[in-house]
Structures are given as C-alpha cells and as structure tokens.
From TrEMBL, chain A:
One of its GO terms (biological process) is DNA replication, synthesis of primer. GO terms for cellular component: alpha DNA polymerase:primase complex. The lineage of its organism: Eukaryota, Fungi, Dikarya, Ascomycota, Pezizomycotina. The keyword Nucleotidyltransferase applies. It comes from the Eukaryota. Residues 1-79, 441-475, 498-520 are annotated as: Disordered. This is DNA primase. Keywords: DNA replication, DNA-directed RNA polymerase, Metal-binding, Nucleotidyltransferase, Primosome, Transcription, Transferase. It comes from Aspergillus campestris (strain IBT 28561). It is an enzyme of class 2 (transferase). Pfam families: DNA_primase_S. Its EC number is 2.7.7.-. Transmembrane segments: none annotated. One of its GO terms (molecular function) is metal ion binding.
Automatic annotation (TrEMBL), chain B:
Binds 1 [4Fe-4S] cluster. InterPro entries: DNA_primase_C, DNA_primase_lsu_euk, DNA_primase_lsu_euk/arc. GO terms for molecular function: 4 iron, 4 sulfur cluster binding; DNA binding; metal ion binding. One of its GO terms (biological process) is DNA replication, synthesis of primer. It comes from Aspergillus campestris (strain IBT 28561). This is DNA primase large subunit.
Length: 520, 500
C-alpha cells in the first residue's frame, strides 16, 4: 500500500526515523504506559503499521498554508462564544488536531487494517447540511484524506457490516447486514426539562450538568458490575448531553433484542410528564436499583433540593404531593406550604417526614411512605436515557472528537473515574485550540521546540530520551486537547490488550479443536 | 466455525459419506426414535413419506399455527388460548405423553404422532424460510406452540427432556448462594427464601426477557436463574436455535434442486399463512363520502379512539408532537383517508412555532415517507407503512420521557387515564369502574371497547334492532382505524332519521 504515503506524507520522509519510536509518547500515568508498551509484542506489525499510518502523524506539512487559514479564522470569529463554526476553522481542526490515528485504532481493534474498520459505516453531515451515509474507508489515511476533502461539519459512526457499505448497491436487497457495533447510550438534558429549574432547552450550566454526572455514575456502575463490561467510553456530546460507547467485544456483537434487554433493564422513568407517577417499582428493590439509589441519594439532596430547589414553585410542589401515597398527609403538607410561600425544597422535603411522624394520618403506613420517597428520589435523579438509540445496532452516533457545530466545542471523552470533575463549560472550543497552537508556536520557535519538551520524556522513559527529544511535537500536544487525547489513547490501549488476549484464547481453542478433529 | 454445531453430521457418520460417492450412496440414517414427547427439531427427518402425507401434515400444522397467531392478535390470555387450542391440537396434531401409552414408553401410536409433528415442522420450515417476515412469524408461532406443549408436559418427562438437551447451565454452589442470598431474593419477584430454589448461572444473553423485566439478578455478565424460570430459558433456547436454523434453510433454499412436486406445495403453504398485518387492508378504515380534510380533523377527532384523541389534544396543547407520536398519528390519519397533501397541510398548521423552512427540513420528509412518497423502493411500492394496529401500539412497551404515543389504557397511570377519559366526556361511573378493572387485568382492548360501546350505546341498540348491522360488524375492535370508521358510521346512522 505505498499509495498511502502519497503527496501529503511526502514532506515527512526525512522525519520518519524520529517519529516512529515516539508513537506511544509521553505517558502521563503508569497505566497508560503499560498499555501502550504492549505494542512491541508484535514488532513486525508495529513497524508495518507505523509505516502505514504515520501519514496522519506528521502535522507539519500545512506549515505554509495552515497559519493563513487560521489567521483568517481569527479575524472572522472574534467572539469567544462562536455561534457557528465556519468551514476554514473546521478544516484547520481536521488538519491539525483531529486524532484520526486513534480513532482508527479504536474502531479497528488493532493496528493492521481489518474489516472492523473497513466495513464500518460513517455518515457525514456536509457543510450544506447534506447527509452522506454509507461511507467507509480502508485505512486511517484514506479516512483522513476524505474527511479533509469533504470537510464535514460533523460525522457519525454506524455499525460494521458484513460487507463494504460502499458496495451495498451491488448486492441484492437485504444482503447487507450489520454485524457489530458498540453498544451505545445517549443522555440528553432536554429530557430533564421538567425537573431542572436553572436552564431549559439547549442551555446548560454546571448545576444541571450534575444530572448527567449522576447518570454516568449509575449507568457506568450497572454496565460494569452487572453486565461485566469494562471498556466503556463516555463522550461529551458537545452541548447538553453525553454518549457512552461500550466497546467490549461481547457488547459489540449483541443482537438487537439483547440491546433492548439492557436498555429495558436500565430504564425506569417512563411516560410523559402527563403520566403522573413515572416511577413505579416493585418491592423489594432490585439490587441494581438499590445500588443506584445509594449513588443517587446524596445527589438528590445536593442537586434536586439545594441547587435546583425544584419544589420551590407551587406547581412542582403540587406534583410532589401527588406522588405521596397518603391523602391526609399531602393535604396537611399543602396547607403548611400554602401558608408559607417560598419555603425551600430541603425544608419541604423534611416536612414530609416531620408531618408523617406527628401521626396526623392514621392510614399512613411507614413502609409505603418510605417506598414512595424512594420512588420520588429516583424519579428526580435516575438517568433518563434515550433508549431508542441503544436498542438498534444500526443506530448512528456522533463520533468522539468532532466539533459540535452549534457550540464549537469538541466532543471530548469523559474519564468515568473522574466524572464529577468534568465541567462542560470548560471544554475547549475549536477556536480556542487553534489559538493555543499559535501562542505555543510563538513562544517556542521551531528550532527549539523539541528541546523544551525534553525533561518530561526523559523522566518517564529514559531509554527513549534521544529519540523523544528530537521528535516533533504533535499539534494537539500544544493545546488543552492533550489530556483528552491521551485519555482516549490509554482507553484504546486497554481495549487492544483485551482484544489480543481474547484472540489468542480463541486461536488456542481453534488449534485444540483441530487436533481433536484430526483424530477421527 | 469450530464450535460444535448442532447441524453437523457427527464425524463417525460422516465417514460413510465420501463426498465423491455421496450422491450414489443410499442414505444410511436410521429411523429416528422419539423418546420424548417434545422435540427441539435439531435433526432433520430422513425417512420417506408420500406426497399426500407431505401436504396433509403440513396443512394440519399450519392450521394450528394460524390459530395460535390469531389468538395472539386478538390479545387472548394464555388460559383463553389454551382452551381454544386444545381441541384443535387434539384433532390435527395430537401429541401424547409417554404415560398415555399402555407400555409406559414410546409405542407405535406415539411414534406416529411424533413423526408427524417432526416432519410437519420441517416441511413448514421450508415453506416459511423465504422471507424475513415469514421467518419471524413462523418462529413466533412455533415458539408459542412449543411453550404451550411444554407447560402441559408432566414434570418427569419434562425433566428427562431437559436433560437430553445438554444445556450449559452451571449450578450455583451453596457457598456462593449464601453469599448472594440477599441479592437473589430481592432480584427475584415472589421469592421468599433462597433455599427453596436451585439456581443456575448462565450468560445473561440467554435470558434477555428476564433481564429486560429486571426480574433476575445479574452480576459480571452472569445471570442467576432460579429453577422455576427454566421455562423462559428453554423457550429462549428453542427460539434461538430455530431462528438460526431458518436462516440456514433460507440460504439453502435456492439450491433446493427440486422438480415441480414440492415447490408448488411449499409456495401454496406460505401464501395461506395470511399475514395478520395485511388482514387489515389499506382501504378498510376509509369511510366513503366523509369529508376528510385537514380542516375537519378537529371535528372528526370526536370519533377517534383514545390513543389518537390524546395525541390530538397534546398536539393542540403543545403545538408539537415527538417523533413516535407523529408517526402513530400520521399513519392513523392516512388510514382514515386523509390525502398526503392534506396531511402535510394539517401538520404545517398544527406546528405553530415553526417557520416553513424548519417544518420542511425537519418534519415533511417523515410524513412523506409514511405515505410512501419518498424512501426506498420497497417503501414506495408498498405505499409507506400500514396504520398501526392496537397490537402494535400496545406492544410498544417503552414510552420514554415526554412521549405521548402508545395506548393510554396501557401506558398511562390509572388516575391519569380516568382524568383523560373524563376530559373526553366519559363520566359514567359504571364505565369508569369497568375500565379500572380491565386495566388492572391488563385487558386494555376490552377497556377501549367498553368505552366505545358506552359512547355509542343508543346507536348500537338501534342497528341491532333493525338488523342493518350483523354481529361481525360489531366484533371487538382491534384497530384504531376500525374504531374511527365504526364510530363515524354509527353516528351517521344515528343522525340519518333526523335528516330524513
């Protein structure tokens, strides 16, 4: 495949030697180091792959054209909050920052191009809003080239088909079938509109992002502990939600009815706002719900009661009363709250227990009240998933790291272990990133660029220090995108590790079975 | 493809079949004996039967499957279905247990019954493997038949049959059971003590329905299945194997190098398995001469069933409906005879907060797609989708947050349902009480029909008396469009004399 080293790659030839050994560079944590150092296990493949894929590694080629493009961008989009992202910015982003190589490795489950990537559907939304489905690419290079050519405002990832999606017209109807796709989940804050008081529709703030944080915690715990999945990538959707990609081999090959089973398992908030009590659970609570309740309890106190002060308004308070099981109790509460308008949510929530304890209502059963309160906590905090997304293997979902066209923010991965620290408002926008490159380059003139980065490389991997010292810094490493890309890389490394051991086990099985067969 | 495959001829037997000599060899398979009443249909039949038997057996089984499917479309409960099916099974496809024979094990009569069951199943596989739709329906009906028979089997034979299947169920040890006790009890509805049950550990993928209902404990990818859920697991296994086998059959079908003896029979069989979806023909809901235009929908909505009426009310209230609500309502409107142009006009006028551009780019395509005006070849040729039946609407188990589609009887909480009914003018206490009862017993369509009968009490009485409508015209309603049509026509009947 020498063609992959064509025009774009040409200027990089002199640098190849320096770039190659660095591919897994600058580990920030020991875990990442372990993951990426696995690669030398397959020296031949590694080399070959690097030969093939360093194309998107060298972002130096646009040195002449990119700054022009960028200067134009800065001139045209001076506002800190860009409403839309113009085409030049988009192109500069794809050229300099988008981690094509990692995206390829992620979907390819290895470094040698396989059908896992080649038969994968991509759907591109072009700048004129045309929607181009069934695109597919054999290698990371071709993928990158086509994205640069099309310069889509965003693109989505679909399933791996049993054949190349581009060939679908040559097949008889119904012959092309999806074979695998990550199991995906979609959380969107618009589904929380009736319980968040701070923002509505497309707006978000830190307060209501808490809903997404708790959703991530609950869903992540269930997927890991109950279903045994390990490789779950959470991605900020760019505006007001988050996606999950469950990448375990077992999850990727789930047929639709099993996906529906998981979606149903996780789904407990039902019906529209008109449907009254939306959480009705059997007792005793399922272990999944007990655990979720444990996770959500303090979030309810913090977010729903304190931050959102959800029950402040009379309408919301009335809804709360309608969820209580005892009429005498809710009447008493209503009288109390009407007499003191503006009573805050935590006090109202405490009132329920206080009044119940006075024993005014003879019909009230403490267990029923406790159960109802649990249901209420869940109704106000439990994840509201858009389950249609999860149910079908063929569902397309926006790729990580693309730009949200409305906000200009990058769809960055969220580290589930530190989900609470994630703040959507500080996620870098594309314009910020591009200017970060500029200011970095201004501070570090090209000739000394490498020297400045020396110490970090030396301390972590002393043996590589020579090669590392002279290698050219990637553009993303000059920006605040760096930690996100690095997290993504460590995620991929862990996935590849599993993929390899899994394959080896399968192969062992195969050879054993073969010998068995031979005996007959 | 190394895993042991059920369809592979075992190596010892294969040795006789040198591929080069295969076509000359006389088949060396021995006659199958049928030690169990039930059959997973793993091994295809090999003995010869006459052409008459071929056809007759297939037709007999088809009758049973068609009845089973009809029962499910009428929303009959398991008990109702059982009483309906039992005599038919006795007549067309008897299958007796070992204990019913004098010797206590399989004798000639039993063997014949089981042979017929076995052969007819495989003949129908050939007939129903051709298209995705046929395959799905065949699997559904066969699974229901299997479930029915499995439940009837006596427990000793059931156990023997299960053991013969060699399923990979790992029993949960006492130690582990004690450790998990609390989780197991709270995850399994209706269970008092863990010790009462034997537990099996299986991959959760094998019991998706239990997982979906959250009535099983799952940990690290393993599901802990109590012994009494065996049925569910066996059924899932049966379905899975049958689906896989049908897939294989469909691929082998073009190579069924056959003279013209079997193919016509097979084609005939698959045509006779009339699709219950297509039983509802497109023109059925259309009322001749009714003024069905965008402007009239508000007035006509009095005749709509509650599901559509609540969609309409929601649409008027919010000036918007979510996707599935739009789809359900659009198809219904299409079903009552609203033309595409009028339908687009209706939605355009209803979505007040949107500019023409927004409307055209976001919503128009879907409407046109539902009418078959755009989309793939299949969609255009089939003129879009059919209006949803009650079956379909009820089956949509998951109406997520903010969704308004579905069946109010099923998807609303009872109090909201009663409120909704009252807002549409149903105040009769007796009817509301009846609806509550029906909903409690999950007989949603009965509740809907109850409301219909109450609302058209006098008209129904009238047409019954003057004999202009017979009983089939007043059969239980199982389709929203039937509801509209009948309601509209009845009101016309009611009005007619005043006009005259």
């Amino acid at each position: 495949m020498p063609h992959s080293m064509s025009a774009d790659g040409a200027p990089s030839h002199p640098n190849d030697a320096e770039i190659l050994p660095d591919a897994p560079n600058a580990e920030t944590t020991p875990a990442e180091g372990a993951g990426s150092r696995v690669q030398p296990n397959e020296p031949a493949g590694d080399k070959l792959a690097d030969l093939l894929f360093d194309g998107d590694d060298d972002d130096e080629f646009p040195s002449s054209s990119a700054p022009d493009a960028k200067r134009a961008v800065e001139a045209s989009v001076p506002a800190p909050q860009p409403v839309g992202v113009d085409t030049d910015t988009m192109l500069a982003f794809y050229q300099r920052l988008f981690p094509f190589r990692y995206l390829f490795q992620w979907l390819n489950h290895g470094i040698i191009p396989s059908p896992d990537f080649g038969n994968r559907e991509f759907a591109l939304t072009l700048q004129n809003d045309a929607y181009l489905r069934y695109q597919s690419y054999a290698t990371a290079d071709l993928f990158r080239k086509d994205i640069l050519r099309m310069n889509p405002s965003r693109f989505e990832i679909g399933p791996v088909y049993n054949t190349n999606p581009r060939d679908r017209k040559t097949l008889r109807g119904g012959q092309m079938k999806p074979v695998s796709k990550e199991m995906v989940f979609d959380i969107d804050l618009t589904d929380y509109d009736d319980i968040r008081s701070c923002c509505a529709k497309a707006n978000i703030c830190e307060k209501c992002w808490a809903f997404v944080t708790m959703a991530i915690k609950v869903v992540d715990a269930a997927l890991r502990e109950d279903f045994g999945f390990e490789h779950i990538l959470w991605v900020y959707s760019g505006r007001r939600g988050a996606h999950a990609w469950v990448c375990d081999p077992r999850a990727r090959s789930l047929p639709d009815d099993r996906r529906r089973a998981i979606a149903g398992y996780l789904d407990i908030v039902r019906g529209g706002s008109s449907n009254g009590k939306r959480v009705n659970l059997k007792r005793p609570l399922h272990p999944h719900l007990t655990r979720s309740l444990d996770i959500l309890k303090h979030h309810f106190a913090q977010t729903t009661l304190d931050d959102q002060d959800t029950f402040l308004s009379p309408e919301q308070a009335e809804h709360l009363l309608s969820l209580l099981p005892d009429k005498t109790l809710s009447d008493a509460l209503r009288r109390k709250w009407e007499s003191s308008p503006g009573r805050s949510s935590p006090s109202k929530w405490a009132d329920i227990d206080a009044l119940a304890k006075t024993g005014k209502s003879s019909t009230l059963n403490p267990t029923t009240l406790r159960d109802a309160k649990q249901d209420i906590v869940l109704e106000y905090t439990y994840p509201r998933l858009d389950s249609e997304v999860s149910k079908k293997m063929i569902h397309l979902l926006k790729s990580p790291f693309v730009i949200h066209p409305g906000t200009g923010k990058i769809c960055v991965p969220i580290d589930h272990r530190r989900a609470e620290e994630f703040n959507p408002l500080t996620v870098p926008t594309v314009t910020e990133l591009l200017s970060e490159i500029d200011s970095y380059d201004a501070q570090h003139p090209p000739s000394h660029a490498s020297a400045d980065h020396h110490p970090e490389g030396e301390s972590s991997v002393p043996n590589d220090s020579d090669a590392r010292g002279s290698r050219k810094l990637q553009d993303y490493e000059k920006t605040s995108l760096k930690p996100y890309v690095e997290y993504f890389r460590s995620f991929i490394a862990a996935l590849h590790k599993e993929e390899r051991t899994g394959k080896r086990e399968r192969n062992d099985e195969t050879s054993e079975a073969k010998t068995e067969c031979m005996e007959f | 493809m190394i895993r042991q495959d059920f369809h592979r001829v075992d190596p010892k037997r294969r040795a006789n079949l040198d591929p080069r000599k295969k076509q000359f060899a006389s088949s060396a398979f021995k006659q199958q004996d049928y030690p169990h009443r039930l059959n997973f249909y793993d091994v295809p039949p090999t003995a010869e039967i006459t052409l008459e038997q071929f056809e007759q057996w297939a037709i007999d089984r088809l009758k049973i499957l068609a009845e089973i499917e009809a029962c499910s479309y009428r929303n009959k409960t398991a008990a109702e279905t059982a009483t309906h099916i039992t005599p038919l099974l006795q007549k067309f496809l008897p299958l007796s247990s070992n204990t019913s024979s004098s010797s206590g094990s399989a004798d000639a009569r039993l063997a014949n019954e089981r042979q017929k069951d076995h052969y007819s199943h495989f003949i129908l596989r050939l007939a129903f493997s051709a298209t995705e739709d046929l395959r799905r329906r065949f699997v559904r009906a066969e699974t229901m038949l299997f479930r029915f028979r499995f439940q009837q089997d006596d427990s000793k034979e059931k156990r023997a049959f299960i053991e013969s299947l060699n399923l990979e169920w790992e029993p949960v040890g006492d130690e582990e059971k004690r450790k998990m006790a609390e989780h197991l009890v709270s995850a399994t509805p209706g269970l008092r003590r863990v010790d009462d049950e034997t537990w099996y550990k299986v991959e959760w993928e094998r019991v998706p329905e239990l997982v979906e209902r959250r009535s099983i404990f799952v940990a690290r990818g393993k599901a802990y299945v109590p012994g009494r859920e065996q049925l569910s697991m066996i059924i899932a296994e049966f379905t899975a194997r049958l689906e896989r086998a049908l897939e294989l059959t469909s691929r082998a079908l073009p190579r069924l190098d056959e003279d013209d003896r079997l193919t016509p029979i097979l084609n005939h069989l698959s045509k006779n398995f009339g699709s219950a979806d297509t039983v509802y023909s497109e023109s059925e809901g259309v009322v001749d001469g009714a003024p069905i235009t965008a402007g009239n929908i508000d007035r006509l909505s009095n005749h709509f069933p509650l599901c559509m009426r609540s969609l309409h009310m929601n649409l008027r209230k919010n000036n918007h409906l979510k996707h599935f609500g739009r789809l359900q309502y659009t198809l219904f409107l299409k079903g009552i005879g609203l033309s595409l142009e009028e339908c687009i006009l209706f939605w355009r006028q209803s979505f007040k907060g949107f500019t023409d551009d927004e409307f055209n780019s976001r919503y128009k395509y879907n409407i046109r797609h539902a009418y078959g005006d755009v989309g793939g070849d299949v969609n255009r040729r089939g003129r879009g989708y059919l209006p949803y039946s009650c079956q379909k609407i009820l089956g949509d188990s998951n109406t997520g947050a903010g969704q308004t589609h579905g069946c109010p009887y099923r998807h609303y909480s009872v109090d909201n349902l009663i409120g909704l009914l009252q807002s549409t003018g149903v105040h009769d206490k007796e009817v509301l009480r009846g609806v509550r009862e029906d909903v409690d017993r999950t007989r949603y369509h009965i509740a809907c029909n109850r409301v219909f009968e109450w609302a058209h009490k006098s008209e129904i009485k009238k047409v019954k008396e003057d004999g202009s409508w017979n009983q089939t015209d007043l059969d239980t309603i199982v389709h929203p469009n039937t509801y509209f049509k009948r309601s509209y026509l009845l009101k016309q009947v009611g009005k007619a004399p005043q006009n005259a």
